[in-house]
Design a protein that fits this description.
Number of domains: 2
Order of helices and strands: HHHHHH
Number of helices: 6
Helix content: 55-70%
Radius of gyration: 16 Å
Strand content: under 5%
Structural class: mainly alpha
Number of strands: 0
Length: about 110
């Protein structure tokens, strides 16, 4: 298995090659340093995947969402709950319960 930095480098190279219909790439929209940080966080998150098998489709969509996971990784529980609600028709309580379940599964604050 490749280490995180090697995998992040490969993802970075692939992402940098994409362009839109105006021939603008991702580097035209954000700095390479910011992009590298996002990719490294995403690789770490994917590598620690602990998705339970008993999730319904809406819960699975939230559980696998990068924005929710990055928010949790950065210790931003409220942002993660808002993202979960934006993605689905889940109530505030349902979103909060799911985000707390994700934290209990180890997807919480990286500073711990």
């Amino acid at each position: 298995m490749k280490d995180n930095d090697t995998l992040a480098g490969e993802v970075m190279a692939a992402v940098m090659s994409f362009t839109d219909e105006n021939d603008k790439g991702i580097a035209d929209r954000m700095s390479v340093a910011d992009l590298w940080m996002v990719i490294q966080q995403t690789v770490r998150i994917v590598r620690q995947d602990t998705t339970p098998a008993d999730l319904n489709p809406m819960e699975a969509m939230v559980w696998g969402n990068t924005a929710v996971r990055v928010a949790l990784y950065n210790g931003q529980k409220i942002v993660a709950i808002k993202e979960a609600r934006n993605l689905t028709s889940m109530s505030l309580k349902e979103s909060k319960d799911l985000v707390e379940r994700m934290i209990e599964a180890g997807l919480g604050d990286r500073k711990k």
